[in-house]
Every structure is written in structure tokens, then in C-alpha cells.
Amino acid sequence: MSGTVLVTGGSGYIAGFTIRQLVAEGWTVRTTIRSLAKEQHVRDILSVDNSKLSFFAADLMDDAGWAEAMAGCTHVAHLASPLPSASPKNEDDLIGPARDGALRALRFAKEAGVQRVVMTSSMAAIGYGVDRGEYTFDESRWTDLSHPDVYPYVKSKTISERAARDWMDANGGDMEYCSINPSMVLGPVLSSDFSTSLEAVKKLMDGSFPGSPDLGFCVVDVRDVADLHVRALTAPDMDGERFFAAGKFFKMHDIAMLLKERLGDEARKVPSRKLPDWVMRLVSIWDPVARQVKSELGKVRHADASHAREVLGWQTRNEEETIIDTARSLIDNGIV
Ligand code: NAP
Question: Which of 134, 220, 256, 285: CA 20 to 30 A from 3?
Fold first, then answer.
């Protein structure tokens, strides 16, 4: 199947791989970026058949450009949403663009007669707002926003997915909506301008950490996340669906040990020690990134992604290989 699809946020990490796969599968792809001044840079990075890809300027917080970008599209993959490494002073700076941008994308899609919108939500909308402990989640769960540990990014993804689903219930009509909820996305980088999700591996590799904090996450490969978006755009009867895009859980220390074992001298700055929680708490006094994640210390969250495998035939790479590909790509691009 192919047609004309709008991928929002074409400068983004997951969007880049999604656009590549869509073009390779014969789709005509449109994409939004905040400013067309970035178009040539993004084209150079994506290096796809340029005749199949066009750019439109649109910001999540402004109506300008969205109608033109959507005109003639049958499908939309809405990926644009802020993903900062640290929380802003005012959480509305994050929640606003995530929620209002999702609603804006849905409203303009509906007006343009789009058949289906696939929105990139997150594991942040499923598995957060829990006490320290070990859990396994599937798509039936929602993050508990009343829990004191939820930080602004987690709120932004939960609130925006909820708002999108509520909007669809009230206004969606024949238009279909489903969400893809990725965990921590790793994999090769497309350029030296890479997503926040690769920061943990970068910081292990470049020696920023004296030890590995007791933090962990489910790893998923960017190429597999892109593939799941394409599957969700094309499979029949997707309305209301929610798909976990998540693989095996790793603690940072496990990742550090894997990097050391597989990369030898190239991973010489990767720490062998574990960082005690009290050090993270101390560092969080001045470091905004540590402040954001300190409430996640000691939490183990597994993801049951069998729904995507069963319904969409989704297959994933080995997570250890994804971690190694991430590190090698950071080295090859001169980032570490
Ligand atoms: P990314 O590389 O940072 O891409 C984010 C995209 O959103 C960029 O294109 C960015 O544009 C755009 N954006 C941000 N604020 C915007 C605004 N106000 N108006 C228009 N565009 C705006 O991140 P990513 O990893 O590809 O993430 C893509 C999606 O996946 C996001 O919805 C994210 O929440 C979700 N997700 C990511 C992960 C992960 O581990 N990476 C996990 C779960 C879910 P600029 O280039 O102009 O900043």
C-alpha cells in the first residue's frame, strides 16, 4: 500500500527513519519542520529520492502551515513533540506543545479528509507514576499522573495521548487514530544532531559518568520503531489501537558491561562501578538531568509488546546489537 503521508517533525530521529522507510516503500512523503531554513540540512541527512519528499513549515503551537501540509494526504504520522534532556522551569512549556500540537494535527487532518493518524506517544504514557519496584506493563495501563514522581515529559506524553483519544471520541468521525508507545529508542544516528534518548549511551561512552546510576529502561531500535509506524499506517482496522514499541529491560550497569565487553578499548571510558543512589541525589542538587531522573532510581519496568507482534507481525532486532550499533554509530560520527 502507498499514498501520500504527512510525517510531522521531519528533523526528528524517529521521523527520519520513518520517512526513509516510507519513501523506500513507494509513499509520497510530506514532512513538517519548524523553519524551511532547515530543509536542505534534513534532506542531506535523509538522502532519499528528493522527488518523493516535500517540506512544509509548521510549528506545534501555531495554525500556520498545517492546512497546506495536510492537503491531499491520506495518512498522517504525528511524531513532532518536544523531547528535552532536562525539565523546563515551567512544565507547561512542554505540555503545551505536546498536547496542543497533537490536537492541532488531528483537527487539520480531519479537515483535510485524512483517513488515519498514527501518533507517537510513549512508554511514558503507560508505565510511569509508580513506586520503586519491579513491574510488567502492557497497553491497558495508563501512567498515574497523581503520583509525585511524574516529571514534565511524562506528563506531556500522557496528557497529549489522553487528549488525542478524547478528541477522537468527540470529533473523529470516520478518521482512524492509533498510537505507538516506544520505550527508550536507541540505534544508529543519522547525524551529529541526535535525539535525547541516546544521551545515556553517549554519557557512558564519553566518560561523563563516574559510575552507572541505578536507572534502567526498555531498549528498542529506532529502525524497528519506524517499521512499527509504517505497519500501523497500513494495516486494516487500526482505530483506537495502542501499540507498545519496546524491548528488553536493561540497567545502565548492564549496558556499561556490554559496551566494555564488546567494544574493548573503544569503551575505555565506560565506568565499571555502580553509582550509589546518594551520589545521584547529591548531583541532582545542581544537575537538571539528574534532578529529572532521580525519582526513577531502582525502578524496573518490563514491557509486554506482544500485541504489536500478534496484530502487526512486528519483529525486532536483538537489543544487545542495538546498543552496540548505537555506540559504534556515536564513534563513527565523531560524537564520542
Ligand atoms: P527528536 O529527535 O527530538 O524529535 C522531536 C521532533 O519534534 C523534532 O523534529 C522537533 O523539531 C519537533 N518539535 C519539537 N517541538 C516542536 C514544536 N514546537 N513545533 C514543531 N516541531 C517541534 O525526538 P524523537 O526521539 O525522534 O521523538 C519523536 C517522537 O517520539 C516524540 O513524540 C517523542 O516524544 C516520541 N518518543 C521518543 C522516544 C525516544 O526514546 N526517542 C521514546 C518514546 C517516545 P526541531 O528539530 O525543530 O526541534
Answer: 220
